[in-house]
Amino acid sequence: MTAARFVDTTRSVWAFIGDDIAVACPRCSSRAWVVPAVMDPDARILDDPRSPWSARRLSCVECGHSAAHSGTRVCTGGGVDPYFALPLWLRTTVRGNLLWAYSGEHLGTLEAFVSARVREKPLDTGIRMTMIAKLPKWIKAAENRGAVLKGIARLRARLS
User: Fold this and answer.
1) How much is the pTM?
2) Structural domain total, the chain
């Protein structure tokens, strides 16, 4: 898939952890999901379940393993989920570098960016460090486009 143009939407990587995150189950190594926890009916209106700091639940359909996380300590990057620090399900090596994504939506954004021949920065919105701006140089490099797209295809196959 080669797109002619990609315009940075100014989303940060935090925008991709608001929903489901595919991880490797710590018990059986199958695909498990880190999802927003069901809100307590007495919770304050500001407790948005899609917030990066809201509670999360880990669930493995394969073995039934589950765990809860308060959502208070969140980190991003490094090929692990930001709540349980479990290896992401969507991770592979491309030319000695780790390529990873939290979800199919995150992977789709990476694919759209990498495959585009023209990559546009947003108009001056005041937002400087978008997810795209923070991508490592090896992902952005034109000479790695084919290898990165093959890596993305491998990750996409893992989702099915």
Assistant:
1) 0.86
2) 1
- 53 phi/psi in degrees, rounded to 5: -105, 10
pLDDT at 44: 52
Helix axes 104-115, 145-159, angle to 10 degrees: 160
pLDDT band at 49 (very low <50, low <70, confident <90, very high): low
Q: Which two tokens stand for residue 137?
A: 């140089």
DSSP labels, 8-73: -----GGGGGSS-EEEE-TTT-SEEEEEEPPPPTTS-TT--TTSTTS-EEEEETTT--EEEE-S-S
Q: Whole domain around residue 99: which residue ranges? A: 5-159
What would the two tokens of residue 63 be?
A: 């073995």
- Contact yes or no for 155/41 (Cβ under 8 A): no
